[in-house]
Design brief:
Number of helices: 3
Number of strands: 7
Helix content: 25-40%
Radius of gyration: 14 Å
Shape: globular
Distance between the termini: 18 Å
Largest sheet: 7 strands, mixed
Length: 153
């Protein structure tokens, strides 16, 4: 069950709040995996109608999480740069639920994502959220450190 005190809203990936959260995510990923994850993320991609960038806000209106959708083609969206600062319980679940709902309303039938095998917290979260492991898709093919997931909407 998601925390109903969390408000999710579309935002600009270049906003100061968005950039602060992306930098926190990058630092956390670098600590966990040795890679900040920036090589597969380009904020410019989120300036069109088939993509989406969102922020999660706590009751005080502070940005405490972020996430994005981008098109992979064939009615498939990819979740990117999903992050919660864990200051409020349920931010990750609220973000993912929102992204799934929006993806469906945008005409997507499937959501995919990739994370690192070593990121056990994220792997467990996606399994709990109904995602199934799939074969790695581009650009993760042949990268044993990556684990890919999908969910039919």
């Amino acid at each position: 069950m998601t925390n109903r005190n969390i408000k999710i809203q579309q935002s600009a990936p270049h906003s100061a709040e968005s950039q602060l959260l992306v930098e926190k995510l990058s630092a956390e990923l670098a600590f966990i995996t040795g890679d900040n994850g920036k090589s597969h993320f380009n904020a410019q991609e989120f300036n069109n109608e088939c993509c989406l960038w969102v922020l999660a806000r706590n009751e005080a209106g502070n940005a405490v999480g972020c996430g994005a959708l981008r098109s992979l083609g064939n009615n498939t969206a990819e979740v990117k740069r999903m992050y919660s600062d864990r200051s409020v319980p349920g931010v990750g679940a609220a973000l993912l639920e929102y992204l799934e709902t929006r993806a469906k309303s945008m005409g997507y039938r499937e959501i995919r994502l990739s994370t690192r095998v070593i990121n056990s917290r994220a792997v467990a979260f996606y399994y709990r959220s109904g995602y199934a492991q799939i074969q790695n898709y581009e650009p993760y093919i042949g990268r044993n450190e990556s684990i890919c997931f999908a969910k039919t909407l």
